């Protein structure tokens, strides 16, 4: 009996070891170069170090191994790409073979998870969510959201005025986080008034991005079964992990809203104009007929194809938009402000544009379209700091060949966006310079060829891009009308970059000097 147990145990251990060695040696067996790391983890441990952002690490390897190389990260086998033609082929032309994204198992199984959201979904589930969500970011809706965003901008200015009255330097990153949290809280979470500098949810959300959860991410990606188990458990005990805590808060908010709407309907009260994303998603419907193939896919997974979102899906979307909209936009604003403070000529030119185009206390939606130089500043900022490049990934769902490279089903693709954005062959010898003017003639850079990807590319391009631009333009215009941005003793030049999900400056301390005193 004991020999049998021993034999079974040894066989089990050997099988597990062989499985992990098989994955780890995947690229070696195929003769694809790249950093190897260690069995089990591959290079995942190196990608998850908060102090040396993983997305910059990819750039170091691209220099060493060239624009196409292979890594293993946990149980993922990933092809890293910094070749514009291949990017375009995978993200646009062969999208049908690459419609999934690279996910950590703790984010749920995109095939079966009922709570799946747009960033994680794939196949027909993604298409349905994208079709239903797209109108939320239409010009008409953005126009409606403008007054909320402007209100938050003016509220932030009041705080800036208070905190800088004695000439102190302030950390713009934390101020921008207050701003984006307030905007997204009001447009996605049903928050009715400003909660700036007293919003308890902000700490939970900061913890998601800045807290140290790397060990958990590592374990879940190396042992996917543990990842799914942790996911199930944390939905039961959400207080243990910030992302799940936030999810459960979102769930309560959506449930309460649905109850109120139902009560109103029962009393014969007509629903108001939508107040926020929750209303928009609860109202949202798609007129698109789902093809037979889609119906079969949903039936296989015991799901009903509905043209409206289920309550779980509404929670998932609002949760995602909160996460996606909070950090990215605050970071982009922080980088832009830093670049303006360290490039006074650009700041002066932008001051002139803002003074000319936005002379009144309130800034109209149409006036934002006239801020052309501001647009160039924001585009150039995101070229130098493509902060959300981790999302520029795909999962191959049908084996194929791309520019002579065979890619098997199940392989992940991760773009090395930073190397593309800093390639002198594309941008010229002044690639390291902050030069918004390079965007004045955009025909020089064809955005659709796979060079410039701050918001990704193709059908899965960032859905919130226009909202992000609107928020940034509106707030920056208000700040620049009032203040000159200057570096101080606490400003880190160059910036110290950190982060394992998004790539963030550690802080951005600046002086804000009133212009018209
Ligand atoms: C400066 C701000 C932002 C940056 C730099 C950014 C960047 C990105 C990137 C790189 C992707 C991946 C695109 C791809 O795979 O092709 C993405 C996807 C996405 N972003 Fe953003 N984003 C920003 C703001 C926002 C905002 C404000 C929202 C919503 C409120 C948002 C929601 C999303 C969603 C839902 C996706 C997934 C789209 C899909 O898979 O269909 N983002 N974003």
UniProtKB/TrEMBL annotation:
Cite the binding residues for heme.
462
**A Pfam match:** p450
Gene Ontology MF annotations: heme binding; iron ion binding; oxidoreductase activity, acting on paired donors, with incorporation or reduction of molecular oxygen; steroid hydroxylase activity
InterPro entries per UniProt: Cyt_P450 (IPR001128), Cyt_P450_CS (IPR017972), Cyt_P450_E_grp-I (IPR002401), Cyt_P450_sf (IPR036396), Cytochrome_P450_3A (IPR050705)
Q: Which domain of life is it from?
A: Eukaryota
Its needed co-factors are: heme
Keywords of this entry? Heme, Iron, Metal-binding, Monooxygenase, Oxidoreductase
Q: What does this protein do?
A: Cytochromes P450 are a group of heme-thiolate monooxygenases. They oxidize a variety of structurally unrelated compounds, including steroids, fatty acids, and xenobiotics.
Q: Which family does it belong to?
A: Belongs to the cytochrome P450 family.
Name it: Cytochrome P450
Taxonomic source organism: Caenorhabditis japonica
């Amino acid at each position: 009996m004991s020999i049998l147990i021993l034999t079974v145990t040894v066989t089990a251990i050997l099988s597990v070891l062989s499985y992990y060695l098989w994955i780890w040696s995947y690229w070696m067996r195929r003769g694809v170069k790249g950093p190897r790391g260690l069995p089990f983890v591959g290079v995942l441990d190196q990608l998850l170090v908060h102090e040396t952002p993983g997305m910059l690490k990819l750039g170091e390897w691209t220099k060493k191994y060239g624009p196409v190389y292979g890594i293993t990260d946990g149980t993922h086998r990933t092809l890293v790409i910094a070749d514009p033609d291949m990017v375009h082929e995978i993200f646009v032309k062969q999208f049908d073979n690459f419609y999934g994204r690279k996910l950590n198992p703790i984010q749920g199984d995109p095939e079966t998870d009922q709570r799946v959201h747009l960033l994680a979904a794939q196949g027909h589930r993604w298409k349905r969510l994208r079709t239903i969500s797209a109108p939320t970011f239409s010009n008409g809706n953005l126009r409606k959201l403008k007054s909320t965003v402007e209100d938050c901008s003016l509220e932030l200015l009041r705080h800036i005025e208070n905190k800088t009255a004695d000439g102190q330097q302030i950390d713009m990153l934390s101020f921008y986080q207050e701003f984006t949290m307030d905007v997204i809280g009001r447009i996605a979470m049903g928050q009715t008034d400003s909660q700036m500098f007293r919003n308890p949810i902000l700490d939970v959300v900061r913890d998601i991005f800045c807290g140290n959860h790397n060990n958990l991410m590592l374990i879940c990606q190396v042992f996917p079964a543990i990842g799914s188990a942790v996911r199930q458990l944390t939905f039961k005990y959400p207080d243990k992990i910030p992302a799940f805590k936030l999810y459960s808060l979102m769930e309560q908010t959506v449930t309460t809203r649905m109850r109120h709407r139902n009560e109103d309907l029962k009393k014969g009260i007509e629903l108001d104009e939508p107040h926020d994303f929750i209303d928009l998603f609860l109202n949202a419907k798609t007129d698109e007929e789902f093809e037979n193939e889609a119906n079969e896919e949903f039936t296989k997974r015991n799901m009903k194809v509905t043209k409206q979102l289920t309550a779980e899906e509404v929670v998932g979307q609002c949760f995602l938009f909160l996460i996606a909209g909070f950090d990215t936009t605050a970071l982009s604003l922080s980088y832009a402000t830093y670049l303006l403070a360290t490039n006074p000529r650009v700041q002066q030119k932008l001051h002139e544009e803002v003074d000319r185009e936005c002379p009144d206390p309130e800034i109209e939606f149409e006036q934002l379209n006239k801020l052309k130089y501001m647009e160039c500043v924001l585009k150039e900022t995101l070229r130098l700091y493509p902060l959300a490049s981790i999302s520029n990934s795909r999962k191959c769902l049908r084996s194929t060949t791309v520019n002579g490279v065979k890619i098997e089903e199940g392989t992940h693709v991760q773009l090395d966006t930073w190397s593309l954005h800093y390639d002198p062959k594309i941008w010229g010898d002044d690639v390291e310079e902050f030069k918004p003017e390079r965007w004045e003639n955009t025909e020089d850079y064809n955005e659709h060829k796979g060079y410039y990807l701050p918001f990704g590319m193709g059908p899965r391009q960032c859905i919130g891009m226009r909202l992000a631009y609107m928020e940034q333009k509106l707030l920056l215009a208000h700040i620049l009308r009032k203040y000159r941005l200057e570096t101080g003793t606490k400003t880190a030049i160059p910036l110290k970059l950190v982060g394992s999900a998004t790539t963030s400056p550690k802080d951005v301390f600046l002086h804000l000097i009133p212009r018209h005193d």
